[in-house]
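Issue: ligand-bound run for iron/sulfur cluster - logging full I/O for the record.

Environment: standard queue, default settings, no custom constraints.

Inputs:
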Amino acid sequence: MNRRKFLTFMGTAGVVSALGTAKVAEAGVHTFPYYDNGYGVLHDMTRCIGCRQCEAGCNKVNNLKKPDVPFTDVTVTHKRRRTTTTEWTVVNRYDLGHNEFVFRKIQCFHCNDPACASACFTKCYKKNPDGSVTYDDTQCVGCRYCMVACPFYIPTFEYEEAFDPIIQKCTFCHNRLEKGQLPGCVESCTMDALTFGRRKDLINIARKRIAENPDKYLDYIYGEHDAGGTAWMVLMPKPKGMPQIATGNAAEAAPAMKKIGLDTHLGTQPMGELTYGALGTVPMIISFWPVIFGGAYGMTKRREAIAKANQEKAVAEERQKTLETVVQCIEKEQGKEAADKARAAMTAALDEQDAKAEKGGEDK
Amino acid sequence: MRNGKALLTQTLKAAACTFCLFALCAGPVAAAELEETDSGAPSAMVMFPVTGDGTATKGSMKPAVFNHLIHEKAVSDCVTCHHTGDPQSCADCHTLTGSPEGNGITLERAMHATNIAPRADGNTPKSCVSCHEERYKAKQECAGCHNIVVPARDDKWCAVCHNANVTPEQLAKGSAGSLTAEENLEIATKSVTTKVAPEKVPGYFEPTKVIIDTLADEYQPCLFSHRRHVASLVERIKNDKLAEAFHYQPEVICATCHHQSPLSMTPPKCGSCHQTKIDPANPGRPNLKAAYHLQCMGCHTGMGVQRPANTDCTTCHKAKPAAE
Ligand code: SF4
Ligand code: SF4
Ligand code: SF4
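Outputs:
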């Protein structure tokens, strides 16, 4: 497989979204199934002391690389750390003002409607009935669309791997859940700041905690609706002196949430729906992407080979051939109407790209 | 280190004082009179649920006795409670069923609401309950326990205020609004002066030491100075009238940590309910390790105890010597 060439073709943004248009037209709004009994984890920041035992637990159960700084050194939490290929979860300290410091654990949120999954055109990601969003590297082409799509900057790419680098992220310990074990981090938490349970139960537990201690908590469950709902949710303390907000009011919660690095403006629309239009051609494309790939590859190859004089004609021919192959696939799968739509959209996109290339003078 | 014996003497002394006071009041002398208030308001009053239509209320709850005298001393000015600026009775506007003058806030809400929206001008009205809550959350001596426990709102809790000893006739008259001010004061005074202070029991402090070793694996067992901790709590709140009223029996202090079980001087241990592994049927109940940590650190944080820091693990339980 030649990823770069494939991406050159796919990267012609218009092509991708044209395919997307056809699919959306055909299938309507796209979402992942919602698993009512799915699990989740509630991170109660009022309990978290930033001891990093969860990081240690994750490292242990997933056999990750030994950390550069031992887990007993809690001063690293003062830095704004991000998850890495070998640290699937990190705990960072945030300043709420008034000398009030809190800690938040960062890992994959296991979105109900994972943007990473809708952005991945080779379908590496899966939302499982247990609530976890897992990644399987066998089909990964290393395009890193998932990294772009994830609103929480979670998937990380093994840039340091020379051969076959893959994506790494928290798995919700899917393999442990299957064995009836708790996620490594949850089991190691010294404060039960991480509560594991069915997502719907967790929302009730969170509500109860807020109701019993309305002064202590901000009346907002991050992840209940944010980004279309997530399996992992966050309860944060109400900063001292801040008046309580209206229950679940995203706009009112925003200033406090911002202090802990969370965005309440992701909206409640499932992220997948958004990325779908922009990046996701999938999962339709999966059935015939080798065809497109082959076509695109051939096209580029030929283009390189033929003389400048013949180039235009040849490219046009090649283009038409690839396009027709794709459209045939669509017609077979989704009927004539969708195929016509896709043909029109793709032709327009390619024309536009050609026009741009002409203007730019250089074909990349 | 505090001396257990000295504390014991102290407690006994306190008990003795209560006894004398009690003996005085109960003597054959004419009903003791309460000190006069500065404001001229009655020193104490029974708050009858006045129906407004001349009928008596039904129900088993005793009316509350309000000790105007000590509350007047405890707040900075009249407006704290009389939030309109007019020293009228609460029930004038906040009627049993709510009235336009009282913004539809019923008497019950006006006394008990805790979800009062802050007013822009800073003049946020207070209910009895919200003001008490504010006080114990603001006071460092109280904030430790009250950071980790939510007082149970049970019958005993209600009875701290709803304790007026009235005859059915008095209740009928009172709730119909036909009791005179003098009669009311007389009943209220009697209730206030005959109130029995909660007994003080030295058994508070047992046991002296607890060795927590059920979980010891990475660390050595933890030695918890039980007596010292209880003694320090009791010592800090001993002059607080609000604390005295609501800690209506010694077991209430025990219930700070030994929460969720019936009040007792020999309450169950933490491990009786908190299992070493989380019970999937009760995902909200912390496991044993977390239960210890939450309780200890929750209280320390609430009371502003600086040392040890929450992540100084080895201050409470020493590291295990490395295996050979
Ligand atoms: S979008 Fe990001 S946070 Fe959501 S499931 Fe995918 S990787 Fe996790
Ligand atoms: S759920 Fe598993 S993989 Fe994810 S952070 Fe926790 S221990 Fe790591
Ligand atoms: S182990 Fe628990 S308390 Fe410690 S940092 Fe992680 S989430 Fe916070």
